[in-house]
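HUMAN: Quick job: go over this next protein and say how the chain folds.
***
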Amino acid sequence: MTDLALVLTTLIWGTTFVVVKDALEHISPITFLLLRFGSASIVLFVAALLARARFDRATWRAGWIASVPFFLSFVTQTFGLVWASPATSAFLTGFSVVLVPLFSVVLLGRRIGAWTWTGAICALAGLGALSLRGDWSIGVGELWTIGTAIAVALHILVLERVAPGKSAIALTAVQVLGCAAWSLLFLPLDRLVLGHASGVFDALPPNVLAIVLYMGCGATAITFFLQTWAQGRMPATRVGVLFTLEPVFALLFSLMLGREHFAARAAIGMSLILAGMVLVETLGRRETSAGLERGVATGR
């Protein structure tokens, strides 16, 4: 049942890349995020209050801190989707799986083993194949989305520090509310980056309103609940492997709708990134766990 919950979560996330790209034809990125996180925060706070979750000062502080990289990950991803294809966005975002252990070396002083380095090199080669053009330049959309991978990795490491001892649903609700507040503050970024912006109260086509509700309630509130519920009941290694399905679902969904037209080099790049993600989340994580056990046994 827990596996099914996470597969459903990654399936929903996999569909979002296409639907968000469609929505961005009618609404500018920050305005879209404001509506998405505004609706999601209402759902999450109602759920948290019904669950009698504890909103203490520590939870509010942790949530606002974590909301910064969380918001940056969505800003960069949404702007990236203006130019990048859905599958490219999904696989570049998935590169964050590889960045987490690498950043932990620099920020937390951890050691990582040979398999993690192998997975990182494999994914980095895939990143180059997927992102670099013939003249060795990187497309605007790809550049924004590499920023997404960095922000997602930082968000994971921040949560690792601030989440223990907090109510999961309360902490999530505060983070999402923080993203809504940051979206409101950064509304001028739409015009600065794109040269135009849609107003929050502009009339939107019914399909765009449906996408906003789907992203806010389904792809944010429900999926975060499923993720939190499942991760508390299964090993982290299995969680990581199941999360690698997200870019695969995104690719399949995009191909099914005829939205992907990429060269063989892009397919090779996606395959290398996926292989790197799996290596890091299986052999690399097992290697790290073994190293931690040896460290405890020897007093290091």
About this structure: Residues 2-298 form one domain. The chain has one domain: 2-298. DSSP finds 13 helices and no strands in the chain. Residues 90 and 140 are 15 Å apart (CA to CA).
